[in-house]
Amino acid sequence: MSLRGKSAIVGIAEFKPMRYTEGATTLGMLAEVARDAIADAGFELGEIDGICVEGFAEAPFEAPATIVEYLGLDVKFAEIVDLGGASGAGMVVRAAAAISAGLCETVVCTTATRRERRTTEGPKRSASAGFSGRRVDRTPVTEFDAPYGAIGANYGYAMIANRYMYEYGVKPETLAKIAVAQRYNACHNPDALFFGQPITIEDVLNSPVIVDPLHLLEIVMPVAGAAAVVVTSARKAKKLKKPAAYVLGAGGHTTHRSITFAPSLTTTAIKGSADQAFAMAGIRRRDIDVASIYDCYTITVLLTIEDAGFAKKGRGGAFIDEHNLQFDGDFPLNPHGGQLSFGQAGAAGGMSHVTEAARQVMGRARGRQVKKCEFAFVNGNGGIMSDQASLILGRNS
Known about the structure:
- This protein has about 400 residues and is an alpha/beta fold.
- Helix content is about 35%, strand content about 15%.
- It has 13 helices and 11 strands.
């Protein structure tokens, strides 16, 4: 089944990233940003008949139903998407598929992450504890990786970077260029966390090494935030006065959870996901005007450029050296600043790549608009290069 041109993103909303959200609830943030996206589309709440949401601690069971009840919706399609950073793009894939299958016509996809200051009061009672007891992670990652220090994501991406350097070689200056270009873009986005704070390649290389070979400025800063989009049928989108971003291609691919079981450290599931999306869209890589790709680390961007087919394997570094990655350059990459400089608000950080791609295609990215933007490529990445979701958005169906 092809999803080409059968649905479109017509509404977008996003909170400005912030360090902390004192007193906010994830439920409230999810609902508020969803309501904002629905209003941006020009729809009433009663027109929404589908919802995609991530899991969140305040609703350990029936998360979609919780949002539906909170907003007063009545939906035919309800889905929880748990793909880590790929959840935003993955939600759009599922919304487009549900609309194409006739299960619903208009879906709101919502993500949010709150963040509180750490206190010395000790651990709070788990929000997921209740009549069923506390949920305990007993996966192989927890039992066999974590006890040996394999905690978080930094170590995994450092292993990937080291392996890539061993196999293909890439200059630290080249990886630093990715961070610098995205900071340039962020300096044209007033909503970015690092707006007005430009950096140089020297700044990146002189920043502290967190896990060799990754420097501080090559790693995202966790923040709080929320983002949502509304996806509707092409039939309904064409009746709207405002421009839409049509879903022309979609793909997904998951190969592992623990990096211990990754088939390769230098060739990723992005290849299968992107190939599927491009084949469905029927366009070439050189037709893409904006690349909006997950950037938890600079090495993630390099691998995505290669595995999405913009450069041959091992030639990603040369591609970066030969191109201008700024929004006003010849290969516009993450015009909003990417998560490296816009901020990474959990799954909402991943959704920021979807909202930015939609803005660019719609011509709504004031101050950083890519000229003549017709096609955008989006890639979401979850875990340690584990879950991948790809989208191709276009101005026309």
